[in-house]
Amino acid sequence: MAKVRVGVAGYGTIGQRLADGVAKQGDMELVGIADMAPTLAIRALYEKGMPYNLYLVDGADKSKFDELGIPVAGNFMDLVNNVDIMLDSSPAGIGLKNKVNIYEKAGVKAIFQGGEKNEVADVFFHGYANFEKGVDKNYLKLTSCNTTGLIRTVDCLDRAYGIEKVAITIIRRVADPGDYNRGLTNALMMEKAPTHQAVDLMTIMPHINATGILVHTPVTHGHIITVLAHGKQKITKEMALEAFKKHPRIRMLRMADGFMGNASYFKYGRDLGHVRGDMYEVGLWEDSIVESGDDIMYALVIPQEAVTIPETMDGIRAAMHMQETREEGTAETNKYLGIGACKDLGLGF
Ligand SMILES: NC(=O)c1ccc[n+]([C@@H]2O[C@H](COP(=O)([O-])OP(=O)(O)OC[C@H]3O[C@@H](n4cnc5c(N)ncnc54)[C@H](O)[C@@H]3O)[C@@H](O)[C@H]2O)c1
Questions:
Q1: Could you read off the pLDDT of 218-252 as tens digits, one per residue?
Q2: Which of 170, 183, 268, 272 has the greatest number of beta carbons closer than 10 A?
Q3: Which residue is catalytic, options 129, 145, 163, 167?
Q4: Which of 152, 150, 146, 154 has its CA nearest to residue 191?
């Protein structure tokens, strides 16, 4: 079977990781990436020897790339016309314009990221929760970083035991590392309830009643979500642990091992030698799982820069009909991204 040809629009925080993710999939070919300006990420790509072909979107000033000697393979249409599917990780709102003005006209499928409105896509997609709904569709939208990780854990319990209701608290990192445009802050900031992640969860899993509160915090290395879940049956700590431990994209963390918080998880990604310290899995504290009457409560850390990459790869597999079921689709993605291998090591992850 010919490799599925993929392009990435917007080589920022998410786009760089999407490109790397596609490059690792043995059954896909990364045709190239497109951006607007010679950002630090593009300069780093050049310094790394241009492993990916660079295309320029409309409005980009090619002379700025020429001055730096950065080679340009062509314009955006050259890329779009040469792929089966585009991964659009341009700034929120641009994806919709690209869909209407470019992808639809070129007859090319596309997957959008969390910043776009849901209306941009045929299906609001999550690799584990609704893979089959994405099969053969032209336009998918990924859940945001928090929603992606949250749904992994709720779907895990839901499939094992049935879940009726969840209430969540999100302690949200306010910016990505290097986002100076967000300012230097030393305060917490409230968001109007219910938080969109709970509403998004209900859109993808309508049988679960969800609500929640979000608090922005001035940190950059990961969000933390606490979840209070009410099952169709009582879910004990042991039952929750058993289900979470089996999930390839959930790593179990213990404070006694040194996982004191969000920064330890980020540092572990660096110690593993992962590019940029990226972690594809969410980290879920074993020590945080606690029963409250008939409810079960737990806390997880969301590595916001990398967490949506696997589910986006699942999206390509669904939209391109490379596999038909969540089991097959997610297993292929996991294989190529090296996800889940740590489960066999006996480290307790
Ligand atoms: N940053 C995160 O942690 C995170 C997590 C999950 C989802 N998302 C979502 O991913 C999407 C991208 O966010 P990001 O954080 O990677 O943004 P970013 O600002 O880091 O990157 C955006 C890139 O797009 C480029 N660009 C600007 N105009 C463009 C155009 N017209 N066409 C193509 N590229 C253009 C910019 O130069 C930049 O390189 C958003 O929808 C966001 O909500 C972000």
A1: 999 999 999 999 999 999 999 999 999 999 999 99
A2: 170
A3: 145
A4: 146
